[in-house]
Amino acid sequence: MKKSVWKKVTGWGLVLMLGASVLAGCGAGKTSEGASQGGQAASGAAAGTVAKIKERGKFVVGVKYDLNLFGLKDPATGNVEGFDIDIAKAIAKKVLGDENKIELKEVTSKTRIPMLKNGEIDAIIATMTVTEERKKEVDFSDIYFMAGQSLLVKKDSPINGLKDLQKGMKVVTAKGSTSAKNIREKAPDVEVLEFENYAEAFTALKAGQGDALTTDNALLYGMAKQDPNYRVTEETFTEEPYGIAINKGDAEFVKTVNDLLKEMKDNGEYDMIYEKWIGEKPKK
Description:
alpha/beta, five-stranded mixed sheet, 47% helix
C-alpha cells in the first residue's frame, strides 16, 4: 500500500511539473508576443489603424458640424461640407482609393479627444489647435492650417481688439477650446461664458448675452459670412496651428497623413482647397 501510494504521489508530481513547464512556455510566448506588439505600438500602432480602416472599408473621422467654411451641416440635405471635410476626403482617397469611403461623426471641442481615445473615430479633423498639453494625449500631423484668435462683434461695436474689452463685458466661446483659456489670460477683467459649441455661442451673441465672441479668425469669418450684421476684428492675438489628431503611438498613420499633406501642397491640391473655402490663396 505504501509503495502504491508513493507511486501515485510521484506520478502526480511529474504531471504537475510538466504542466508548470508547459504553462511557463505559454507565458513566455505571450510575453514575447506582447513585447513585440509593444514595440510595434512604440514605432507606430497606426499600422493597426490603417489596417482597421482598410478592413472596415471606410475612414471614420471626427469633424465639426457647426463651423461654416470648415465643417457645416446643411439641415436641408444633411451634407457636411468645408475645408476639414475636403482634407478628410483626401485621406480616404489615399488609404482606400476613394474619397467617398468616409464616415463623418460630429465632435465638439469637449468630446473630440475622448471619442478618438475610445475608438469611435480614427482621427480628428476639427480645427484642433496643436498644444503641448494636447500632445500628452494624442499625436498630431504636420500643421495643415494656421489661424489666429480674434473677436467677432456687431458691425457698429466699438470693440476693435483686446484693448477695447473692458471690465464688466462678456465674451462668449466654446467649452474645451483653447480660445477660452487664451481670452482669460489676455483679458482677465472680462467675464467668459462657455457654450457647448460655437453655433450655440453665436446664438448667444446674437441674443445679446455677450459683447463679443472669440475663437480663431478662420472660424469667425464663417460666422460673419452667415450674418453680415457681424464683423471680425482685424487684430489676432495668438497663433493657432491646426493639426490632425491621431491616437498616441500611431506613428505609421501620422506618416501616412503627413506624406499626403506634403503631396497636396506640392501638387497644388491644398491651395485649391484653401482658396475654395477661405477665398484667398494661403500665405507662403
